[in-house]
Amino acid sequence: MVHGYGPPGYGEDPNKDVKVSYLALSLAFSVTTVCTPQLPELQDIQCGATGVLRLVFPTNKEAADLKKKAPALVGKRVLVTGVLHRQESMADYTRVYMNVVEVSAIPPEADSGDH
Questions:
Q1: How many Cβ atoms are within 10 Å of 96's Cβ, its own excluded?
Q2: Long-range contacts: 88-93, Cβ < 8 Å, 24+?
Q3: β-bridge partners, 78
Q4: What angle is formed at CA 5 by the lines to CA 92 and CA 82, rounded to 5 degrees?
Q5: Is 100 within 8 Å of 85 (Cβ atoms)?
Q6: Start-end of H helices in 7-55
Q7: Which pLDDT belongs to residue 89?
Q8: Measuring CA to CA, which residue among 50, 57, 53, 51 is closest to residue 35?
Q9: Cis (ω within 30 of 0) for the bond into 14?
Q10: Which of 5, 11, 15, 68 has the most other CB atoms within 10 Å of its CB?
């Protein structure tokens, strides 16, 4: 669970910026997506890799259980399946985010630590 600031300044003025919380996946490695920066000098800012993915859950009724079970998994090793997308606006919060399809806990006996 990540706690931070949203609009209008995304943390520039904590007294005016909205406080936000969102579920995120902390990775042991960095990921990125295909990206073409507006200018070459913006490569790292616009297209850089990240080790934290904001998790976006479907809003349809059929997927309501998916969003409900995710908070119980905070702080645990999990298997998350989804589609990665490049940040399109500051409201996406992380450089790369994931539209979640499935999330489940990794059983302790299956977690050998070799991942």
A1: 23
A2: 90/7, 90/10, 91/6, 91/7, 92/54, 93/2, 93/4, 93/20, 93/22, 93/54
A3: 105
A4: 30
A5: no
A6: 43-47
A7: 83
A8: 50
A9: no
A10: 5
Write the DSSP string, 46-109: HH--EEEEEEE---SGGGHHHHHHGGGGTTS-EEEEEEEEE--SGGG-SSEEEEEEEEEEPPGG
Q: Tokens in use for 26? A: 């902390």
CA within 13 Å, CB half, 47: 11
Question: Distance (Å, rounded) from C-alpha 22 to C-alpha 12?
Answer: 19
- pLDDT band, residue 114 (cuts 50/70/90): low
Q: Convert 41-74 to b/e letters by CB count within 10 Å (16 or more is b).
A: eeeeeebeebebbbbbbeeeeeeeebbeebeebe
Residue 76 buriedness (CB in 10 A; 0-12 / 13-18 / 19+): exposed
Domain ranges of the chain: 22-110
Q: Which pLDDT tens digit goes with each residue over 14-44?
A: 999 999 999 999 999 999 999 999 999 999 9
